[in-house]
Predict the structure.
Amino acid sequence: MGNDGGSIPTRRELVKSPTRRATHSQLRDSNAQTQEYHWSTCPLSKRPLASPVVSDSSGRLYNKDSILEWLLRGTEAFGDGEEVLDGRVKSLRDVLEIKFDISKEDGQDKWVCPVSRKGLLAGVRAVYLVPCGHAFLESAIKEIKGNEGVCLQCGTAYEADNVIPINPVLDEDAQSLRNRIKILSEKGLGHTLRKLSDGKSKKRKKGFKESEKLPKKEETSIKNAATASLTSKVLEDEKMKNKRRKTEMSDNLRSLFSTKEQDDASGRNDFMSRGYTIPTKR
């Protein structure tokens, strides 16, 4: 009980100093269950990861159709999109499609390292290369000698700074990725090493005057067939949602109105409910 003569409490027992609690992000990153979530679920759409999968400058994985939907609709598609992406994705140039080697196990597709054939999943240090996008175990990249700076799958050259950890856990890796994208931005390059748009119009670059008008293009073509199909699918789904929203009526709104059959069956045919008609001359 205390303070009854049987015990003498000390100051440490009476006055408890506030303890520093870890932030929510630190607890989430240190949790193995969260790592499993990042390797299996798109943080933007909250749907399971499915090919094609892309990654931004932070090393996080997303569904490509979710990124397209975000670029087309913004917060209307995903309310927490700005918090999840943190301004890292402004166009398709800010994401790179990851090329995973797939192995069939128990009838399911699993991502594996093409060198060691070990699984790429939560709990392992996996990386992908920029600009080709092939994914490997980090140990496979370091142990193989004689192929430094060359992708083991396609032979594309890469630099050490462009080895991106997938779903990084350590703060050092996250800080290194932030420093990398900062240096690339100063050079006018994006995460995929492609040049960023400077915001100037093409007319000014080519020397056109403001009064001159260029003919409008009726259609805009997308070179990548996979990206074009995903974009058309997202646009078609959006049209169907808008059409359904206009045509369908909620039950609460429908209950405010009644049909002619309901009025005749219930006998609601008095002066107040039947309305008024203008008599015609004979």
User: Anything to note?
Assistant: The longest strand covers residues 101-105. Strands lie at 53-55, 61-63, 96-97, 101-105, 108-112, 126-129, 135-137, 163-165.
